[in-house]
Amino acid sequence: MQKISYQQKDFDKKTAMLYSRPSYPPEIEEEVKIILQEVRKHGNRALKKFARKFDGVDLDAATFRVSEDEIKMAGSRVKPKMKHAIRTALANITDFAQERIPRPWTHSPRPGVIVGERFVPMERVGVYVPGGTAPLVSTVIHTAGIAKAAGVTEIVAVTPPGKDGKVNPAVLYAMRKAGVDEIYRLGGVYGIGAMAYGTETIRKVDKIVGPGNAYVTAAKKLVYGDVAIDMVAGPSEIMIIADTTSNPEFIAADMLSQAEHGSGHEQAVLLSPDAALIEQVEAAVTRQARHLSRTDTIAKVMKKGMFLIQTADLDHAAEIAGKYAPEHLEVMCEKAGNIAKKVTAAGAVFIGPWTPEPVGDFVAGPSHVLPTAGSARYFSGLTVEGFFRRMSIVNYQKSALKSELPAIRMFAAMEGLDAHGNSAAVRIETK
């Protein structure tokens, strides 16, 4: 863990280094680009090759897709308590999404003019669900569940298979409950390529959403334009604002919750004006970490990605938080709501001591697909609106067009676009 104090001469320099953190190592782009190009060119043949190379499984066009029998069998292997947790989370996420579904509207701002907006769900959306070190069952709900609430016609899910070629049963159960129509056991970059470009047996999608490792993130960035994406997101991160009223055990547990994700590049940052609390949190992190299962990953984050920062006061902490723009921000101090309002950028804000970040990961309601690496300054987390096409509505009567024709013609003249001006003028000036 690294300690930084506002009293140090190089404080601003050290904290500024935290603000600039890449979503993924840029040097991997060339490797990712080669894989995507091969998928685009060779389709199923490339998928078969990369399934063997990266996931160690033999697949072909007939076995890329998970069968109905496998999905049903998976459901029988999921324990009732797991099913209850999945249904609970899905209900909460669906409820939140339905509150945000955009509604069509029209407005007449001046005589003879009607403007407005119309929203139509996308037809075919792809969700990426990470597997590997941790099968993210919750990600199914936080992506496909929201797409279903939006009314997306076809939902496609891609997730890496295990070494036995199978998909985690709980993941399959969640996919079925969330309304996924097609499930493919394809991992990483080649799975993103299959959804973005399509193959002989897999139709391309309109948009790809969902988190992934550095290679998945790079792939999503590179296919942007061929499909829409939600965002370019990197390793998970948490920032906590705390003071003398905060419980150091809570803080330590929350910092460790993000350190276990798997890449070793996660970050956990504490901001507090209380030096004594910082010491207590450091001791609590060290003690709690000994009892957790993902010790190797956590050790890497503790060494390189944990920062304990003493600020001048809570306002100073809120200022730093806004510049850092964390994926997850916990505000665990006195008058937490007031301090939270002073933070200008974060993916999601968790207020008070009884709101640990994992409630957002699993059951709260908003999607856990959130901007990282400081991109919360200009991106927002995944919402139901992201699964809609927005169309502007413009309806002019002749009188309104006549009234505004001089302005239209002037813009056409200024821009040297006489055909534009004529398109409006011919309707009014032709006898």
Cα-atom radius of gyration: 25 Å
CATH topology of the largest domain: Rossmann fold
CATH architecture of the largest domain: 3-Layer(aba) Sandwich
Number of separate helices: 17
Give the overall silhouette: globular
Instruction: Report how far apart the termini are.
Output: 80 Å
Structural class: alpha/beta
- Indicate the percent of residues in helices: 40-55%
Q: Which CATH top level class of the largest domain fits?
A: Alpha Beta
Summed up, the domain count is 3
Uncertain segments of ≥5 residues (pLDDT<50)?
none
Main beta-sheet strand count, sense and barrel state: 6 strands, parallel
Describe the structure.
By secondary structure, the protein is an alpha/beta fold. The chain has three domains: 2-21 and 234-365, Rossmann fold (3-Layer(aba) Sandwich); 26-229, Nitrogenase molybdenum iron protein domain (Rossmann fold), CATH 3.40.50; 397-429, no CATH class. Helix content is 46%, strand content 16%. The chain is built from 17 helices and 14 strands. The chain has helices at residues 11-19, 29-42, 44-55, 68-77, 80-100, 137-150, 169-178, 188-197, 214-223, 248-259, 275-289, 295-304, 314-324, 336-341, 357-362, 398-414, 418-429, and strands at residues 2-5, 105-107, 113-121, 124-128, 154-158, 182-184, 207-209, 228-229, 237-241, 267-272, 306-310, 328-331, 348-351, 388-396. The protein has a six-stranded parallel sheet, with helices on both faces. It has a five-stranded parallel sheet with strand order 6-5-4-7-8, sandwiched between helices. The protein has a three-stranded antiparallel sheet with strand order 2-3-14. The radius of gyration is 25 Å and the shape is globular.
